[in-house]
Amino acid sequence: CMTNIGHFRAAGELLRGFVGGTLPTRLWVAPPTKMDEAQLTKEGFYSIYGKVGARTEMPGCSLCMGNQARVEAGASVVSTSTRNFPNRLGQGANVYLASAELAAVS
Predict the structure, then answer these.
(1) Which pTM does this prediction carry?
(2) 3-state secondary structure of 56
């Protein structure tokens, strides 16, 4: 809800230059709407996400709310969501809020 398509484009541009195959960390991408997903796919950003090993999720709020998928217990997470309540994304998960650009390079 607090991101826009420009954030996904910016993250994609940073990831475009990654030459090490897949990222050494896990990256989950979930745009806020299906319309954004379709536009990002059309512009080739989903291809970039796939090349670096990102996991693309169904658009919407479920991932940020911890309903759709959960991280491992005790994981440290850099999130572009707007909230970092205890246990929101996983049991004992430490969630740090950041911009899309910072999350992409983390």
Answers:
(1) 0.80
(2) strand
Which residue has 């983390």 as its token pair? Answer: 106
Say how many C-beta atoms besides its own lie within 10 A of residue 30's C-beta. Answer: 22
Instruction: Convert the pLDDT of each residue in 22-47 to its tens digit.
Output: 888 888 888 888 999 999 999 999 99
Q: In angstroms, rounded to a whole number, what is the distance separating the alpha carbons of residues 22 and 8? A: 18
Strand 55-56 versus strand 28-29 pairing type: parallel
Locate 23 and state its tokens. 């990222």
DSSP 25-82: S--EE--SSHHHHHHHHHTTHHHHHHHTTPEE--SSSHHHHTSS--PPTT-EEEE-SS
Give residue-wise pLDDT tens across range 42-61. Answer: 999 999 999 999 988 888 77
Q: Give the pLDDT score at 60.
A: 79
Give residue for tokens 């991101």. 3
Phi, then psi, of 48 in degrees rounded to 5: -65, -45
